[in-house]
């Protein structure tokens, strides 16, 4: 990642951490005062998100730094590990909230101060949707996975708050009517719906990050490399090749071995560098996020 893009990513993450922490405190305190488990869950969700944003900020700083003697390939591997940890925590918290919601409904529901809950839900909705728009706008240029996940978290938080707002408005209309006996079930019911939905949301992120951790070759990148090399081998009349690709976080690792015929005439090393440059350009040019290794050999057993 370029230094300028890394600085933008870190600045946005810092702002997000502050706002998330603020919302978390508001949600937990007001949730306790209003007696709403759903608002408490929303606050807890924001608290976990704030902790994960701190981790994301630390990793973002690592990714803008160079590797060292111990981490010679850099710190790209840390990113998918954090994403898996982040997503797994959200899944576990959602499962726990769902269990609490079911238990609350089975025990007769929960009395809630809907007047306070309405105010809190409205405030949290506006702030969350606003932060979603801000983070998403900033990420259009740098395309950071961390900012994408952060924007997704803000969208989820805003959706939760909007759902709470709608539910509490309905509860207000039900209060004093013949359906008043159902109002204690509104809060745990909404909590159950939210937690069920949020249980599945991080799974795609966790799945993709696990693919990176296990070095599963991305099909699109592998296909791109092979199609180009098939043509290159024919044009330069090389014998064959082998290629290996992997994606770790936002970094791409491409290793290419080209077998030249034993009698192949090579005038100088610069002529091979021309071919290397052609391959590098086809793979996307120079980038700190791309590790490209190209080897020429006449011994096919080495590939």
TrEMBL record:
<keyword id="KW-0813">Transport</keyword>
<feature type="transmembrane region" description="Helical">
    <location>
        <begin position="12"/>
        <end position="41"/>
    </location>
</feature>
<dbReference type="InterPro" id="IPR058533">
    <property type="entry name" value="Cation_efflux_TM"/>
</dbReference>
<feature type="transmembrane region" description="Helical">
    <location>
        <begin position="179"/>
        <end position="201"/>
    </location>
</feature>
<keyword id="KW-0472">Membrane</keyword>
<dbReference type="GO" id="GO:0006882">
    <property type="term" value="P:intracellular zinc ion homeostasis"/>
</dbReference>
<dbReference type="Pfam" id="PF01545">
    <property type="entry name" value="Cation_efflux"/>
</dbReference>
<dbReference type="GO" id="GO:0005886">
    <property type="term" value="C:plasma membrane"/>
</dbReference>
<feature type="domain" description="Cation efflux protein transmembrane">
    <location>
        <begin position="13"/>
        <end position="213"/>
    </location>
</feature>
<dbReference type="InterPro" id="IPR050291">
    <property type="entry name" value="CDF_Transporter"/>
</dbReference>
<feature type="transmembrane region" description="Helical">
    <location>
        <begin position="47"/>
        <end position="63"/>
    </location>
</feature>
<dbReference type="GO" id="GO:0015341">
    <property type="term" value="F:zinc efflux antiporter activity"/>
</dbReference>
<dbReference type="GO" id="GO:0015093">
    <property type="term" value="F:ferrous iron transmembrane transporter activity"/>
</dbReference>
<keyword id="KW-0812">Transmembrane</keyword>
<feature type="transmembrane region" description="Helical">
    <location>
        <begin position="83"/>
        <end position="102"/>
    </location>
</feature>
<dbReference type="GO" id="GO:0015086">
    <property type="term" value="F:cadmium ion transmembrane transporter activity"/>
</dbReference>
<protein>
    <submittedName>
        <fullName>Cadmium, cobalt and zinc/H(+)-K(+) antiporter</fullName>
    </submittedName>
</protein>
<feature type="transmembrane region" description="Helical">
    <location>
        <begin position="154"/>
        <end position="173"/>
    </location>
</feature>
<feature type="transmembrane region" description="Helical">
    <location>
        <begin position="114"/>
        <end position="134"/>
    </location>
</feature>
<dbReference type="InterPro" id="IPR027469">
    <property type="entry name" value="Cation_efflux_TMD_sf"/>
</dbReference>
<keyword id="KW-1133">Transmembrane helix</keyword>
């Amino acid at each position: 990642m370029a230094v300028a893009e890394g600085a933008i990513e870190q600045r946005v993450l810092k702002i997000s951490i502050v706002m998330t922490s603020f919302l978390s405190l508001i949600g937990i305190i007001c949730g306790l005062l209003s007696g709403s488990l759903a608002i408490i869950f929303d606050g807890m969700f924001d608290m976990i998100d704030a902790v994960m944003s701190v981790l994301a900020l630390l990793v973002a700083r690592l990714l803008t730094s160079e590797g060292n003697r111990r981490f010679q390939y850099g710190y790209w591997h840390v990113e998918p590990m954090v994403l898996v940890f982040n997503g797994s925590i959200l899944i576990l918290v959602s499962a726990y909230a769902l269990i609490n919601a079911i238990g609350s409904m089975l025990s007769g529901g929960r009395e809630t101060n809907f007047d306070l809950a309405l105010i809190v839900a409205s405030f949290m909705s506006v702030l969350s949707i606003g932060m979603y728009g801000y983070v998403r706008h900033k990420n259009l240029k740098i395309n950071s996975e961390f900012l994408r996940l952060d924007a997704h978290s803000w969208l989820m938080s805003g959706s939760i708050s909007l759902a709470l707002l709608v539910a509490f408005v309905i509860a207000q209309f039900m209060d004093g009517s013949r359906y008043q006996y159902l109002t204690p079930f509104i809060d745990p019911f909404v909590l159950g719906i939210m937690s069920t939905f949020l249980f599945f949301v991080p799974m795609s992120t966790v799945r993709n990050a696990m693919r990176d951790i296990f070095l599963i070759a991305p099909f699109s990148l592998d296909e791109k490399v092979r199609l180009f090399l098939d043509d290159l081998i024919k044009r330069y009349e090389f014998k064959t090749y082998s290629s290996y690709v992997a994606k770790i976080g936002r970094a791409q690792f491409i290793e290419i071995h080209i077998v030249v015929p034993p009698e192949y005439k090579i005038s100088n090393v610069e002529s091979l560098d021309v071919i290397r440059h052609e391959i590098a350009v086809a793979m996307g040019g120079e980038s700190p996020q791309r590790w490209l290794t190209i080897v020429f050999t006449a011994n096919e057993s080495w590939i």
